[in-house]
Amino acid sequence: MASIFITGSTDGLGLMAAQLLSRQGHAVALHARNDARASDARAALPANIGVAVGDLASIAQTRDVATQVNAMGTFDAVIHNAGVGYYGRRREETEDGLSDVFAVNVVAPYLLTALITPPRRLVYLSSGMHHSGDTTLSDPQWTRRPWQGSQAYSESKFYVTTLALAVARNWPEALSNAVDPGWVPTKMGGSSATDDLQLAPVTQAWLAASDDLHVRVSGQYFHHQQARTPHPATQSPEVQDRLLDYCAELTGTELLSAAAPTD
To answer: Could you give the residue numbers annotated as active site?
Structure first.
């Protein structure tokens, strides 16, 4: 039995992955943005082993989420599932002066990775849209460009894929991978999405807890349990380091090279 913490797990793919892992006999801890959503999460998965509460748009609250998770113990895996989409969204600025898309989709998984006791496995939710992401990190907060929600989302998924591969490079004893769950009809994906919703949580759950030899890999990008080729720039140490340095500057916390527990 593995213990897994999943961000953004009150509904959508996060909750579906949590329920799937729980049915498989694993111990699952959840995350909710606020107390009301935490109550919803507990009702949806009564077998949970804990619920961390905090808004990942806030650096301070994200730090507190990490503290709550560490208080629960050391986890075998963390699934960085939480994210915000772009449909109908204008640029919203967080209390830290960041674009909320970048704050939730990039800064939060970076900071949680840096602060949570390193697990054996890390899984980051990406998207096929990451192939359209900007590789230069020239205006990640969209302060100089006219806002384009779909492009901001694509860039955030490029960055989180880059983060997953950077973690794999810096923590060689951990298994760190990115997952494209497909375009599925969740609240984020919208009703016109065409991919299979039932398949959407399978790969991240598989990477987090399976004993399958095919999951004993790191620095990969998966879609429906098959390795795919990510944007080539996500594999560049220079691009990875640029992103890590930028996130460290924003948060005041470095992602140190550190040995994670062996699997």
So the answer is: 153, 157
